[in-house]
Amino acid sequence: ALLSPWALRRRRRVLRKRGVAGSGRPGSADRAAAGSASLAWDEAADTGVDYGHVPEKSESPRAYALRLADDAGLADGPALALQRLREAYEQEVYAAPGTTVRGASGAGSGSGAGSGSAPANRAERLWSDVTAVQVGLADSAPWAARFRARYFPASLASRFRR
Questions:
Q1: CB-based contacts of 69: which residues, under 8 Å, 6+ apart?
Q2: pLDDT in tens, 148-159
Q3: SS3 content of the chain, % helix, strand, coil (to 5)
């Protein structure tokens, strides 16, 4: 019973990772792939919440990402990964369909030769950025915050308040 929050949070992370890879929803791979940046952003933002960095209700994803990187004291690598996730999320949610925003991670086709490899590469890049943010938050947090984030994740409770 004590490990239930950990197990629920881990399950949510696994489902999001599958969704980013496009295999999260059987029969709707296009829909899952279309929302991959949103899933990756949600995972990174929930990790921030788990470490005590709760977004304000009026805060945009851009403002939250900047504040999270600053408040958590993220190193350059994780801070850049967070920026790429935010850019990909903004591209997916706010840009007109069919447009590509320069500099957005995972946006556009990249330099992959085959069209089948581009979504897989994009999914790998998105999830590696999520992992970099998670590691960066863990590295910059005291042990008590790491323990709380792992075994009593605040993001579980915040999902019920929305």
A1: 78, 79, 82, 83
A2: 999 999 998 865
A3: 70, 0, 30
